[in-house]
Design goal:
- The complex is a heterodimer of chains A (534) and B (419).
- Chain A is mainly alpha-helical and 534 residues long.
- Among the domains of chain A are: 117 residues, no CATH class; 213 residues, no CATH class.
- In chain A, 66% of the residues lie in helices and 5% in strands.
- Chain A has a four-stranded antiparallel beta sheet with strand order 3-2-1-4. In chain A, strands 5-6 form a two-stranded antiparallel ribbon. A two-stranded antiparallel ribbon of chain A has the order 7-8.
- Chain A is globular, with a radius of gyration of 31 Å.
- By secondary structure, chain B is an alpha/beta fold.
- Chain B has two domains: 213 residues, Rossmann fold; 178 residues, Rossmann fold, CATH 3.40.50.
- Chain B is 40% helix and 17% strand.
- Chain B has a seven-stranded mixed beta sheet with strand order 7-6-8-9-10-14-15, with helices on both faces. In chain B, strands 2-1-3-4-5 form a five-stranded parallel beta sheet, sandwiched between helices.
- In chain B, β6, α6 and β7 form a beta-alpha-beta unit.
- In chain B, α3 runs parallel beside α4.
- Chain B starts with a helix and ends in a 23-residue tail after the last strand.
- Classes of the chains: A mainly alpha (534), B alpha/beta (419).
- At the A-B interface, α5, α10, α11, α15 and α20 of A face α2, β7, α7, α8 and β15 of B.
Chain lengths: 534, 419
């Protein structure tokens, strides 16, 4: 393939291949073949020609739009079917074309050939995309060196030029001239990409007694370059680890915040808390289904609509639970535990009946898919960034609610001294219901967040109940601030342990740590001061 | 005291009911042949195993419609071990000694199979196990209709190492922490070493059951892949965890053409719960894909779709078929053929008649039960995930290959090839 692209670049350099007849029939036959080598050869032959017809065919191959219809190769574009050989519309469209599919290596070959064709395009955006694509999956690309030299000579754009310089340096690594190699290594030393490091590593590798790279100067330069790249990578690695910790922490916080109110403040051991998360997640699923069927244009915003819906649905379920069951069990923790555990089973079974036992698909909306690239080896996924921000927002709302509103004041009053609050006219029974509803609603919000990163199924809540209690107990019962610090701390510590010892050991270590911590400091990180003891 | 007395009373009542049930069922045993179905219908494994129960019921109905076996109708006995491993053994014992089933089709996880083995050995029962597994086992009372490692794992790794599969040189072995992934990875590690892959080019990672935060692992894979040479990931992650793993993979921008992931426990059914678009190009190795085109498969898919509608399964219009379902289907038919040949449902006679049975399977090949090793000869397919959650077959063996339940890559196995 490399040699053929080399020929292609020469052909481009000489300006050959402007007008051509149809794509050769044997190439089309190769594409339709079942045999890998035949397909690869056909793609390489297409890349070699490089005129408008083959470029369109390559593009269609990359989009999985090429199909076999009878003995003809066609391009399927929506309702229209084009002849692959010359791009003419076929009428009538052939029945049931059988689509041709590429495997990974062929797809890479097609994309590489397309990018190489576009590197000399007149459209700036197209050139930039081509250069980036080549950087991403070219390998050493030694065969493309003449093309890069030519492109670099023509290129004026400040954004594309550095990429071309890097591409040229990468391609020159295999040059027979030691001085060219040395210069290439020095250029690449400026990069901070792990891919470049991967290219430099073989240079300092020993093969038997001799080094792969014969020239000592180049070897030394490569060593310096690798060290420089490593130095830059360490920081972004560290930043990445802290972020993953914060992300896990924010999820723990969202799962536990509702519990911090119902258990922490009201003292109800709610084993059905996980199922309230599940209710929230299913609300997100229901909104997605509603948007898909009713408002397909706004389907990307179903998550936004799911936030209030999940809050109110979960709050309603929570208030119903409180009114019918939990209310009669205040002050009897063991019975509460059993009753809420029963409720959790009821909710799980209800979800099974309504939505089926299988997990349901909740897709990330387009604006929450993918990630933002901060450094070559550090890309933060949008869905996690959004969840970190969302947990901050929920925290703020809860804090305002508990500390700045009349309802919050009533809740605090009732939890601190119920008879006295009743005496001064606080409707304690209604406050209990409302507080429980708020806690449940926040769990529903957590469920919406979870639906974006984890499985949505009837049993999903079970996995979070232990973690939620862990956060609340570690943070100190009755304290929102404690829950925040405990969640973020647990998140970051877990992630660092995972990186060091693996997920299984990390989980064990965290549990051991919590057991010891609770023994030494039963009141948690932050204890309530004063005489109030439940 | 009150509690204990009522418990005793309940125990006596239930025991007598069970005994009456036993008597009643043996009175009818002459008209039908009882067939046990031992799959979890609740709990974590219900997601995968429910479809196998449905397939078994469908196949039994198909056989009954054609007149049954030995002129008798098959009567399914469905029990639910609820994803609880000890309960599998309990329910197996109930099937064998109370319901007196002639054969059982069941189990998914290796740990559930290990749990029922002693029961089948003790009571001389017959179990058909329909799921790919780690090998290192060969029992007289069990027929394995899923793949052994050389019918799935080894060909998949060979494909990754080939030019066609991207010539991978470094491997990440990623799995859930239990017997199947651990054993498979032990075999793969030995295999990779025999192919000259250095110890430093293999990374092994395990996560607990139900793990849902794959950020650290993806970051590690990225780092590992960044140290030169083409890297591939071999995933033996089981169950639900696959969804968050693949989501994270898509969001982290790890594309299949850079670092392909080949999975051994991800099929059409598992992908129903995922948005497959970011996963296009990642791989799975199986002995059957729903997308395989041949008349037998068309028939099989249509039969299951009709069954789903008739049985009113949830989302009946989107049901899919997968490899373990095909293995269940093949297993039941082969058992029926063996019973016809043996003219008896007696365990030992059926075992003797099973060897050499053939069946034209939906995979498009005629599968044969090996004469000696209780495993099927199966073809191997490698598929790439498509945007609609189906697989595009990119490589397959020319024909069915014989299973090697005792992997030749594990020392000391040379003498263990037969029963």
């Amino acid at each position: 393939m490399k040699r053929l692209i080399f020929i292609l670049s020469l052909a481009l350099g000489l300006g050959v291949g402007a007008v051509r007849a149809d794509v050769a029939p044997e190439v089309l036959k190769g594409l339709a073949s079942e045999d890998f080598d035949a397909k690869q050869g056909a793609v390489a032959a297409l890349a070699e020609v490089g005129d408008a017809d083959t470029a369109r065919l390559l593009k269609a191959l990359s989009d999985d739009a090429v199909a076999v219809a009878g003995d003809k190769l066609v391009i399927v574009a929506g309702d229209q079917v084009l002849d692959a050989a010359n791009g003419k519309l076929l009428k009538p469209a052939p029945a049931s074309p059988d689509s041709i599919s590429l495997n990974n290596s062929l797809r890479q070959q097609v994309d590489g050939a397309l990018a190489a064709l576009r590197l000399l395009s007149t459209d700036k955006a197209e050139r930039l995309a081509a250069a980036k694509a080549l950087l991403a999956d070219m390998g050493d690309g030694a065969a493309l060196l003449p093309l890069f030299d030519k492109a670099l000579k023509q290129e004026q754009d400040g954004e594309i030029k550095p990429i071309l310089v890097q591409l040229q340096a990468q391609a020159s690594l295999a040059s027979p001239d030691a001085a060219a190699r040395l210069q290439a290594v020095q250029t690449l030393g400026q990069s901070s990409s792990p891919a470049v490091k991967a290219l430099l590593l073989p240079l300092i590798e020993k093969q038997g007694d001799t080094f792969a790279e014969p020239d000592e100067k180049v070897r030394l330069a490569a060593q310096t370059a690798i060290k420089a790249i490593d130095g830059r990578l360490v920081w972004s690695d560290m930043a990445g680890q802290v972020f993953t910790g914060l992300s896990l922490g924010s999820i723990l916080l969202l799962a536990a915040l509702g519990l911090a109110i119902t258990y922490g403040v009201m003292g109800v051991i709610n084993m059905a808390h996980g199922e309230l998360l599940m209710v929230g997640a299913y609300s997100a699923y229901a909104m997605q289904a509603l948007f898909r069927s009713r408002f397909p244009d706004f389907v990307d915003y179903y998550v936004v609509a799911a936030v209030p819906v999940a809050f109110f649905v979960a709050a309603a379920v929570g208030m119903l639970m409180e009114r019918t069951v939990i209310r009669h069990l205040y002050g009897r923790p063991l019975e509460t535990l059993l009753a809420t555990w029963g409720l959790s089973l009821v909710l799980i079974q209800a979800a099974r009946l309504l939505f089926g036992a299988q997990n349901v698909e909740v897709a990330n909306p387009a604006w929450m898919s993918g990630g933002v690239q901060l450094a070559e080896n550090l890309s933060l996924p949008w869905n996690r960034l959004v969840i970190v921000a969302f947990s901050g927002f929920v925290l703020l709302v809860v804090w305002l609610l508990m500390n700045k509103t009349r309802l919050g004041m009533f809740v605090r009053a009732v939890t601190q001294n119920r008879p006295m609050a009743g005496c001064v006219g606080v409707p304690t029974a209604r406050i209990d219901t409302l507080a429980f509803g708020i806690g449940s609603g926040i769990a529903g919000l957590g469920g919406v967040a979870l639906s974006q990163i984890a499985n949505v199924g009837p049993d999903m809540g079970q996995g979070y109940i232990v973690d939620s209690f862990m956060v609340v107990v570690l943070g100190g019962v009755g304290q929102l601030a404690g829950a925040v610090w405990a969640a973020l701390g647990l998140g970051v510590v877990t992630k660092f342990l995972e990186g060091w010892a693996g997920a299984v050991i990390a989980k064990i270590l965290v549990l051991v740590f919590i057991i010891i911590f609770i023994q030494k400091r039963p009141q948690g990180l932050f204890a309530l001061k004063g005489r109030f003891v439940d | 005291m009150q509690n204990r007395r009522s418990f005793l009373k309940a125990a006596v009542i239930s025991a007598s009911i069970a005994a009456m049930g036993g008597i009643a069922s043996s009175a009818y045993a002459a008209d039908t042949i009882k067939v046990g179905i031992l799959h979890s219908l609740s709990g974590t494994m219900a997601i995968s195993e429910t479809a196998l129960k449905e397939t078994a019921l469908m196949t039994i109905e198909e056989i009954n419609a054609k007149g049954g076996v030995l002129g008798k109708k098959l009567e399914p006995v469905v029990v639910d071990p609820a994803s609880d491993w000890p309960k599998f053994a309990e329910k197996a014992r109930q099937l064998l000694s109370q319901d007196k089933v002639a054969v059982t089709f069941g189990c998914w996880t290796s740990v559930s199979r290990k749990s029922v083995l002693p029961v089948y050995k003790e009571l001389n029962g017959l179990l058909f196990y329909p799921v790919q597994y780690e090998g290192e086992e060969l029992e007289k009372n069990v027929f394995y209709t899923g793949a052994a490692p050389n019918q799935q794992a080894i060909p998949a790794v060979e494909y990754l190492m080939s030019k066609e599969g991207g010539s991978a040189k470094r491997f990440v072995l990623l799995g859930t922490d239990y017997v199947y992934p651990r054993t498979t990875n032990k075999i793969l590690r030995a295999f990779l070493k025999s192919k000259g892959v250095a110890e430093s080019d293999i990374m092994e990672e395990y996560t607990p059951f139900g793990h849902s935060d794959y950020q650290t692992i993806i970051a590690k894979i990225k780092k590992f892949a960044g140290e030169g040479k083409k890297t591939a990931v071999i995933s033996t992650i089981n169950g639900d965890s696959n969804v968050p793993f693949y989501k994270e993979l898509g969001n982290a921008g790890l594309k299949a053409k850079d670092v392909p992931v080949v999975a051994f426990s991800v099929g059409e059914e598992e992908l129903r719960g995922v948005d497959a678009k970011p996963l296009v190009g990642h791989l799975a190795a199986w002995n059957y894909f729903m997308s395989v085109k041949n008349p037998d498969n068309d028939k099989f898919i249509k039969m299951y779709r009709d069954w789903a509608k008739k049985a009113k399964l949830p989302k009946a219009d989107t049901v899919v078929t997968n490899d373990p379902m095909e293995a269940t289907y093949v297993g039941i038919h082969m058992w029926a053929q063996a019973v016809e040949k043996a003219k008896s449902t007696d365990t030992d006679k059926v075992i003797a008649a099973m060897g050499g049975q053939t069946f034209k399977a939906p995979s498009g090949f005629t599968l044969k039960m090996d004469e000696t090793n209780h495993h099927l000869h199966k073809p191997v397919f490698i598929g790439e995930i498509k945007a609609d959650g189906q697989f595009n077959v990119v490589w397959k063996t020319k024909g069915p290959i014989r299973a090697q339940p005792w992997s030749p890559y594990i020392p000391g196995n040379e003498s263990k090839q037969k029963l």
